[in-house]
Amino acid sequence: MTDLSDLAPAAWPARAAAAWPAVPLIAALALWAYAIRHTDVSALDDFGLLSALHPTFWAGLGVLTAGFWATARHPRRPDGWSLAYVLGLLVMERATQAVLYPAPLYAWAWKHDAVIDHLLTSGGLQTADQLGDMAVYDQWPGFFAAQAALVRLLGVDNAAMYMAWWPLVSSVVLLLPLLLIYRTFTADRRLIWTAVWLFCVGNWVGQDYFSPQSVAFALHLGVIAVVLRRFGGRGGRRGRSGQAVWTVLLSVLVTAVVVSHQLTPGMLVVTLVALAFTRRHRHWVPVITTVVLFLAWCLTAALPFLSAAMPDMIRSIGDVGANVETGYGATPTGTGAVATSWAARLLSGSVLLLALAGVLRQRVLRRRALPLLLVAAAPLPMFAASSYGSEMIFRVLLFMLPGAAFFAAAALLPKVRTLAGEAAAREAGGHAPPAPARRRRLPLPSLPPLRYAAWAPLLALLAVTFAFVPSYSGKDRINYFPPAEVALVRQLFDRAPDDSLVVAANRNYPLAYEQYWRVDHYWFLDDDRSHVDEIVRDPATVLARDMAAVEAPAGAYFLLTQGQVANSEMNGQLDEAQLRRVRESVASSSRFELLAENSAGVLYALRPAS
To answer: Residue 598's beta-bridge partner residues?
Structure first.
């Protein structure tokens, strides 16, 4: 046992000072845990999780941000504390939904689970003749094949058992390549960790969910990290001999990207081409490797999809206006949807404006971190390449963010250091150059113990951190499916024979693609607006006519759930009153038979014509 009387008088104060960062971190997580226990998500409104969260969540987020800022700016604080705060931020950002909601979010996540189930059921890939439009997933099977193997390895029934936690896991995985990229240019821990924090709060786009994009983006950053750190043009025999190993690693990473996702290889190519035009990274091996692997996959496994999609892809090239507009069915409608949409825009705009301020303010970064500036700017031409289902603007923001966050962090710091600048100073005289004399300014009134200039960056950091919540969780009324909705849809697929048809307003419901290899789907809000208007005028008659072609023993089913209603109403399609009219028309028609009904929706079957 240690005799406390033998400790030096300053030992206890020193230890207390060293452990001080734990206080706000623990307090923030305690407030978060209390908020989770007292948040009710049973009746979300148009503001999603924003209005449902208990106020202590915001208090915890504020304490966490302030504690991080004080810790990251301390010159001698170990990096472990900054990492702990970033992990705490990711828990509050990404784990909140996983803890609060008893079912996984996002219809697309459920769709990807269905693709994995198909691979496990069929035992192999299939063509468009067998799967129709869903064959595209078999032409980029990397993510799904890996997840099928993971499902078998874990011994679970399906990926839905763990996909609610995927946003947290995929976000934590991004930290390693981000740190490698940032440390390529600076050893300034304040700049590194502030950039990581801004990346986490600026990444509201939602591509961290259970999807090929989440893995492909992490691999994309891994390739960029390898290129920046190992293909830097240092020269020398040792560098050239080591490049063979890194080229092999690069090829593995690029191959994993190419076989998993359609868009990410294109983003990777334009980024590597931009880097190749800098003097330090004028190395064409990464570019050639990526282009060859990308073309090889496109001309073989992915050729059926590309052959069918190529005419539309060619027509969209150069049509910037059409490529960034949202259009019918993707326009936020209603106070909550519009407010959260503007919160997301303001968040991205703020990060980009801070990045511009960092570029203008920190002259050393414009010279020493030019490759990272190119990484941020390279995705911009993709606006002219394709609309990518009206999502190109969001994907461009995602791929710009790693570089933009670095320069945005520089705008919040008084002065930054770069590795190249420190090396040049050592070569010149062995010491860093003296700081230039500052011009005398009139003294400003102060708020003890910090001046206004020290408060402004903290307030900016708090603002963008708080803005993440409505940007990321503001559409949870659309994205969350309660257990009753999952149970209702599961009843449908438990009873539907092969070659059955499911008719629904849109695809925003759980298990929407369940058993897609044997059951067809028709979402009438995806049809021409004239036909949608015809359905609204006489719902039961028109729907019965559309469903009448199904022959026994297959069945035709009409499904309407609260997820469909929320998606239609908040994205400018049919409002709640119009969909209620559709439901009431079907309910009163003798052509339809009620099979199941609960608080989340209804399920009807079309009776055979007499």
So the answer is: 601
